[in-house]
Design a protein that fits this description.
- This protein has helices at residues 2-32, 55-67, 107-120, 136-141, 147-161, 187-199, 231-249, and strands at 40-47, 72-78, 125-133, 168-172, 204-207, 215-216, 222-223, 271-273, 280-283, 316-319, 325-346, 357-363, 370-378, 384-385, 389-390, 396-417, 422-430, 433-434.
- It has 449 residues and is of the alpha+beta class.
- The protein folds into two domains: 36-260, SGNH hydrolase (Rossmann fold), CATH 3.40.50; 268-434, Jelly Rolls.
- Strands 9, 10, 11, 12, 13, 16 and 17 form a seven-stranded antiparallel sheet that branches.
- Helix 2 runs parallel beside helix 7.
- Residues 1-6, 17-36, 380-389 and 441-449 have low confidence and may be disordered.
């Protein structure tokens, strides 16, 4: 009897320990999940034309995955070509600048504020984070010296009008297109101010954008150096903003890297493989002067990329033709196609420049091809810096990446029209896959003391 009582006591202790552990684990899980009772996280996205889709959509998707869709509110309001004074009501021009009409100061802020108040009406707010992608107009206008105080002025307006004790923020530094060397008076000043603001505040941060502005822009022009970004660049930037914002809200939060998986390709260096590797390809015949007789067109889908000094090896050369150069790739079966990248070689000495026009077509039967909406774009004459000043082209490989918004087909047709004597191509990549996980390696910027 005594032994039975002792065994029952031991069993009770074990069950108590198990139950205690289960309760502890449940508490940990509940603590890891944002509580609706604490309120929602409000994110305010604003700025100039670079605060455009797909940046807000990419940002919203990431923060929703981190905190839960029902625990976030995202408000986006941006206007192209607008200076910071359209948000800061007390903005005044630098003493040494030309007089500026300040009658519209703050009008975009007032519009944004009204949208905000309607959005948060009846909601309990746990945190507020301001995401800011602006500064290009102030750099161009020569108003960089008052940029820092103007940004802080906007934060003060939010604190007063939304009755906030604290507001987090993340600034996107304007990219290196906006520099004095390219005719932008205060580009270096604005960039420096944005970094200074981000590093000087524990509840603030800044993100880099310099590596995202090469490629096919939202208007279908290929640019070596642009004030805007290709769609993929905007998606990556949206996730960079989201990552920083989440880290500020909860520094102890362990982020799932799968929520930050956007990829930006601006060269073949980062391509590991793609869906067209070893697939059948037909099309225009390369010139005998620049071809590998053994492999022929198959070298365009072999997953290998040419060195810049070897036209005629991996780089196949095609003489200019009035109707352009065409290639058709058979993927073997119908599938979603989200991107097609053409790797070309620019060589002014040999007379090979950027193609005048690139068009992507898809088909399921190889008989009827339909052009992918928006993917008939001119790429030749958009390779300019500001005010149409031509970029000095040198021998270099370029990747023309066309996103297709998930077209579906088995056959991919690529048509390239060039005004130059030669066109050099070494690979046509369908649905390129990165060499490494796309998660960005963050460079920590020590905060100013």
């Amino acid at each position: 009897m005594e032994t039975k009582i002792i065994n029952m006591k031991h069993q009770w202790q074990r069950w108590s320990a198990i139950c205690g552990m289960l309760l502890f684990l449940c508490g940990m899980v509940m603590a890891a999940e944002p509580s609706a009772e604490k309120g929602k996280h409000l994110f305010i996205l604003s700025g100039q034309s670079n605060m455009r889709e797909p940046l807000p959509g990419s940002f919203t998707e990431s923060v929703s995955q981190v905190f839960g869709k029902d625990n976030v509110l995202v408000v986006t309001y941006g206007k192209p070509s607008q200076p910071i004074r359209q948000w800061y009501k007390l903005w005044a021009a630098p003493a040494d600048s030309k007089p500026v009409d300040i009658s519209t100061n703050g009008q975009l802020y007032d519009q944004l504020l009204q949208i905000l108040k309607n959005k948060i009406k009846g909601e309990k707010i746990a945190s507020v984070t301001f995401i800011w992608m602006q500064g290009e107009a102030d750099a161009e206008g020569g108003w960089g010296s008052v940029y820092e105080q103007s940004f802080y002025g906007i934060l003060d307006q939010f604190k007063k009008d939304l009755d906030l004790q604290k507001i987090n923020f993340v600034i996107g530094r304007i990219n290196d297109y906006w520099l004095p060397s390219k005719g932008i008076v205060d580009g270096d000043i604005v960039r420096a101010k944005e970094v200074k603001i981000g590093e000087a505040n524990e509840n603030g941060a800044w993100v880099d954008t310099d590596d995202l502005n090469k490629g096919v822009n939202p208007w279908g022009g290929f640019e070596l150096d642009s004030g805007h970004f290709p769609p993929a660049g905007y998606r990556v930037l949206g996730q960079r903003f989201a990552r920083k914002a989440c880290q500020i809200i909860d520094p102890q939060l362990k982020l799932d890297e799968q929520f930050f998986d956007a990829v930006f390709f601006d060269s073949t260096v980062n391509i590991k493989t793609h869906a067209a590797v070893s697939k059948a390809i037909t099309g225009s015949k390369p010139d005998e002067k620049y071809t590998d007789e053994k492999s022929g067109l198959t070298s365009l889908v072999d997953g290998k990329y040419g060195a810049t000094d070897q036209p005629g090896k991996q780089w196949l050369g095609f003489a200019s033709a009035p109707d352009g150069v065409e290639f058709v790739i058979d993927l073997g079966q119908s599938q979603d196609v989200n991107g097609v990248a053409i790797s070309i070689l620019v060589d002014p000495v040999l007379g090979a420049i950027i193609p005048k026009q690139t068009t992507i077509f898809v088909s399921n039967d190889s008989a009827k091809f339909e052009d992918v909406p928006g993917k008939s774009f001119k790429v030749g004459h958009s390779a300019h810096v500001r005010r149409q000043k031509p970029v000095e082209l040198k021998r270099q490989p370029l990747l023309i990446l066309a996103e297709t918004n998930k077209a579906n087909g088995r056959y991919i047709k690529v048509k390239l029209v060039t005004e130059s004597p030669w066109l050099f191509v070494d690979e046509i990549a369908v649905n390129p896959v990165p060499k490494t996980r796309p998660f960005p390696v963050e460079v920590e910027h020590p905060r100013s003391k």
